[in-house]
Design brief:
The complex is a heterodimer of chains A (about 375) and B (about 325).
Chain A lengths: L1 H16 L1 H21 L7 E7 L4 H12 L3 E6 L3 H9 L5 E5 L3 H7 L6 E4 L4 H22 L22 H32 L1 H6 L5 H31 L7 H25 L3 H18 L12 H6 L4 H13 L9 H26 L1
Parallel strand pairs in A: 1-2, 1-3
Antiparallel strand pairs in A: 3-4
Helix pairs in contact in A: 1-9, 2-7, 2-9, 3-6, 7-9, 7-10, 7-11, 7-13, 9-10, 10-11, 10-13, 10-14, 13-14
Chain B lengths: L6 E10 L2 E11 L4 E5 L6 H8 L7 E6 L2 E2 L4 H7 E5 L10 H11 L4 H15 L14 H12 L6 E5 L7 H16 L3 E6 L2 H4 L4 E6 L2 E6 L1 H5 L7 E5 L3 H10 L3 E7 L2 E6 L6 H10 L6 E5 L3 H18 L1
Helix pairs in contact in B: 3-4, 3-5, 4-5
Classes of the chains: A mainly alpha (about 375), B alpha/beta (about 325).
Chain lengths: ~375, ~325
């Protein structure tokens, strides 16, 4: 124990003097959050909208007004003919065209389903999907306003989005960002700190001493566990401040989920360090191992359910996948640990697996 | 402390796949001895040391440090040895004092003993008053002595020095060897690997390892005795390359080697006189500045041992 403490104390002293480590641990996460938080904003406001109102009635004008009131759409043009629509779209002047057919008002008055058409620029599937979502939301509101009797549903859709009532993609993305940033900092800093010892020859010196591998690793990773935990909590607090992330669960539950995830991340860094001999290789391997799966295969950006089945299986060994569910559960839904136990268990299993694998690789080096 | 040699190595062998890095090596090192380990890079020195330190398991054979078997109790071995390599494995971002405290902690030294040994290490390295300097700001010689101090914190009866003087200036090298002599006088066994043959001359005994095999072992005097019947001539000439070619063609000359601008020629017999050789060279039109019989250096020994071991290996 005295030996593990000696290693931990040494590590802290080193970190304090090493500006690069401090930078990676504390400022890079904040920087990433800032950068990605604003860049990865799927919300679209002020979509340029043109309207072809063939009905030209009080009801149709009310519908158009509802679109502009929503602030999602800016009315930039009115259209007379089909040819104009194509022209406006081709020139990129508008992203969406609302077509209100003749007889719209009549259908509304009769209480039957009134149909309108929305034409979207589909060159960016994400944007189009989002705009379609807004359209449905606006139509839903209008249906209530225009409906003379509340029990009559006029315009097909009634979207209700839970947990993120304003449909802000930031709320969905920020937990992913937290996972992504924490994973990268924890993996990279652990891998680098161990490989640095290999490069400097101090690793060999330490191995000559009567200190067990586990004591060395505990001493070596403990400071990073504490630091990355603090760093991750800072990122979460910053997210609340910058992006109005709510906190519906308990901080204790959040810290537990975070700690389990970070142990797995540190273990991943350790595993990288058993393979890499230079800091450069370690950095690249760590980025690859932490960055790609967390970014692509965790459900952070691309929904797992829409992946090919092979990829879906691969995602089962990506820890961020479970962490995201647990984190969204605690932060957005206010769930307690009992409700997310399966994901927590998966994180524990991952941490055990990488630590065992690293220990095995370290032991084989001696043989 | 148990009786018997400080190091006992018996038929030690280590293979990496089909490559045999250390091949059936046996030797003993006595207590308090300064034992030199000579060999080219890749000859098997480091592999041997790593096995002696318990970092690497032998493929076959055994080694014991202070009577403790390396294979069965590597932790016990680690407690009894100090280790220092040419890289002076200090933490550059820590101060002198923090480095000492870290290595002390690594060896599990308790508070009072750590204080005591800290003073010893500072004294030994000559770094009193510079405790708070960063290790990276120390020059090579200071780093080297601090690294040795750190390796000796737990008072090991035995210390391994793996090319400890690499990249250090001659004055620091001399000072360092004084430290080694001090340790030896106080009863510490020292096993040192080196490229520098002048350093090897300062060892009590020397082992020469070549291609994984122990090619020769003994005191420097014993090793030089191999030239008792084969005098060595040192020839100076304005054209050493031509002189060397001519010497090689003489039946009385066993072999030659170039030492800077002088040529060393090993004669086949005691009875051959320097005059005969001079006459042969001058007869071939080669100027001779000087020609005399010299006492063999360890370098002559090393080259001779390696030559013979290689030709034996080639014949086999």
């Amino acid at each position: 124990m005295i030996r593990a403490l000696a290693v931990a104390l040494k590590e802290l002293r080193q970190i304090r003097r090493d500006r690069r480590s401090v930078l990676i641990m504390l400022f890079l996460p904040a920087f990433f959050l800032f950068l990605y938080g604003y860049a990865l904003n799927f919300d679209i406001r002020h979509v340029a909208l043109a309207v072809q109102d063939r009905d030209d009635s009080v009801d149709s004008r009310e519908l158009v007004a509802a679109f502009t009131r929503s602030t999602y759409f800016d009315l930039v043009d009115t259209v007379r003919s089909e040819a104009d629509i194509e022209d406006l779209m081709n020139r990129g002047h508008v992203r969406a065209v609302l077509v209100i057919p003749e007889g719209f008002s009549r259908e509304v008055q009769q209480g039957t389903v009134a149909e309108v058409q929305i034409i979207l620029n589909g060159d960016n599937a994400n944007t189009a999907t989002t705009v379609l979502g807004y359209t449905n939301a606006v139509l839903g509101q209008v249906a209530v306003t225009l409906g003379r009797r509340p029990d009559v549903r006029l315009i097909g859709v009634e979207p209700r989005i839970w947990y993120n009532p304003e449909l802000r993609s930031t709320l969905f993305l920020v937990p992913g960002l937290i996972a992504y940033i924490s994973m990268i900092t924890a993996v990279v800093s652990t891998a680098l700190s161990i490989v640095r010892e290999k490069e400097n020859g101090t690793m060999e010196q330490v191995r000559m001493a009567p200190i067990s591998t586990s004591a060395f690793i505990i001493g070596k990773t403990l400071p990073y566990l504490v630091l990355s935990q603090v760093s991750a909590l800072l990122v979460i607090i910053a997210s609340m401040w910058l992006f109005d992330l709510p906190m519906n669960g308990s901080w204790l539950d959040l810290s537990i989920v975070l700690a389990v995830f970070l142990v797995g991340a540190l273990g991943t860094g350790l595993l990288v360090s058993t393979v890499a001999e230079t800091q450069q290789v370690a950095f690249q391997a760590a980025m690859l191992l932490a960055f790609l799966p967390t970014f692509m295969l965790s459900g952070f950006i691309f929904p797992i359910a829409s992946m090919p089945i092979g990829l879906q299986y691969i995602t089962t060994v990506v820890p961020a996948r479970y962490f995201l569910i647990a984190l969204r559960g605690v932060v957005l839904k206010g769930l307690d640990l009992a409700a997310i136990w399966a994901d927590l268990a998966a994180l524990v299993a991952y941490a055990f697996a990488v630590l065992a694998l690293s220990a095995l690789r370290l032991a084989r080096k001696t043989g | 402390m148990s009786a018997g040699p400080a190091i006992r190595v018996e038929h030690l062998t280590r293979k990496f796949g089909r490559f045999t890095a250390v091949d059936d090596v046996s030797f003993d090192v006595g207590r308090g001895e300064v034992f030199g380990f000579l060999g080219a890079n890749g000859a098997g020195k480091s592999t041997t040391i790593r096995m002696l330190c318990g970092l690497l398991t032998p493929t076959s054979g055994r080694a014991a440090i202070d009577g403790i078997d390396v294979g069965s109790d590597p932790e016990g071995v680690k407690r009894r040895i100090g280790y220092m390599s040419q890289r002076f494995s200090l933490y550059e971002l820590l101060t002198v004092d923090q480095n000492i405290r870290f290595y002390g902690g690594l060896y599990g030294l308790e508070h009072a003993r750590l204080e005591d040994r800290r003073r010893f290490a500072l004294e030994m390295a000559g770094l009193n008053g510079r405790e708070n300097e960063l290790a990276r700001n120390l020059s090579g010689g200071w780093k080297q002595r601090l690294a040795l101090g750190c390796a000796m914190l737990h008072e090991p009866p035995l210390v391994f020095l793996d090319e400890p003087t690499g990249g250090v200036d001659p004055v620091s090298r001399r000072d360092f060897w004084r430290l080694i002599d001090d340790l030896s006088r106080r009863g510490t066994t020292v096993l040192v690997t080196t490229h520098y043959l002048d350093e090897a001359e300062r060892c009590d005994r020397v082992a020469i390892i070549h291609a994984g095999r122990l090619a020769a072992i003994g005191t420097t005097a014993e090793l030089k005795a191999r030239f008792a019947d084969r005098p060595i001539l040192e020839v100076r000439s304005p054209d050493p390359v031509a002189a060397m070619a001519k010497l090689d063609s003489l039946p009385t000359v066993e072999k030659t080697s170039l030492f800077g601008t002088t040529v060393h020629a090993v004669l086949r017999q005691r009875t051959i006189t320097p005059e005969e050789i001079t006459a042969a060279l001058v007869g071939a039109g080669i100027q001779v500045t000087s020609l005399s019989v010299v006492t063999p250096s360890l370098e002559d020994v090393f080259l001779d041992v390696v030559d013979r071991a290689s030709s034996k290996g080639a014949a086999a």
